[in-house]
Amino acid sequence: MPAPQQIPRPTGWRRAPELAWRGDLSLPALLDQPPVVPTGSFADASGVVVAPPTTRLSAVLVALTDALPERGGTHVLVTRRSAHLRNHAGEVSFPGGRVEADEDPVGAALRESSEEVALDPSDVKVRGELPHVHTLVSGSYIVPVVAEVPEPRLLVPNPFEVDAAYWVPLDVLTTRGVHHRELWTRDGRTAPIEFFELVDDTIWGATARMLVTLLSA
To answer: What CATH number was assigned to the domain covering residues 20-171?
Structure first.
């Protein structure tokens, strides 16, 4: 079992009401209607994604598949960040990282996925993106690139970056009691924080927020 994550709950946090999930979690239903939109939908007129000042432009790959051997339903790929990393150690996230000066968010998401878990870009079909996420604490502006993996191969975690990589069934994420939402108040501002409590891991924060966007009715 992985080491417990450090979740910085403020004093006075409280639970929020439960959410309603999409009824159809099949891959076609997820990809062919909002919230997944065409790649570049949030770019400016020149096609460039512009992050707000003081933020870092990042991209993650929300990789989906319904082709896992002997496992039915749609799954999403997540990683557990290495315990020795300086930032977000041990947290569960999508493969991804900073967008370099010579690449776009799609290129960054594919490159990072290859580096982190040996996901070959030729095995990935980019299908769109989710609404972008701005994280105030870490100062990141994240582009979630949604992709289909028609024929998943063996994942090979890079030990310098991730401790584990695995596919999570979407019907597990939407099982009653797995997700909950907390309201955190800091500096006079209250914001919802999402959590998915798996058997051996907790998905929370920005990654959980993107999953909620994908799965909400």
So the answer is: 3.90.79.10
Which amino acid makes up residue 26? S
Alpha helices in the chain (DSSP H): 27-31, 105-117, 170-173, 205-215
The letter for the amino acid at 28 is P
Length of the chain in residues, anyone?
A: 217
Is this structure's pTM higher than 0.90? yes
Do the strands 202-204 and 189-197 form a parallel or antiparallel pair, or are they unpaired? antiparallel
The single-letter DSSP state of residue 45 is T
Rounded to an integer, what distance in angstroms lies between the CA atom of residue 87 and that of residue 73? Answer: 33
Tens-digit pLDDT string for the chain (217 aa) = 565 688 889 888 999 998 999 999 999 999 988 899 999 999 988 888 988 888 999 999 999 999 998 889 999 999 997 766 566 556 899 999 999 999 999 999 999 999 999 999 999 999 999 999 998 777 899 999 999 999 999 999 998 889 999 999 999 999 999 999 999 988 888 889 999 999 989 999 999 999 999 999 8
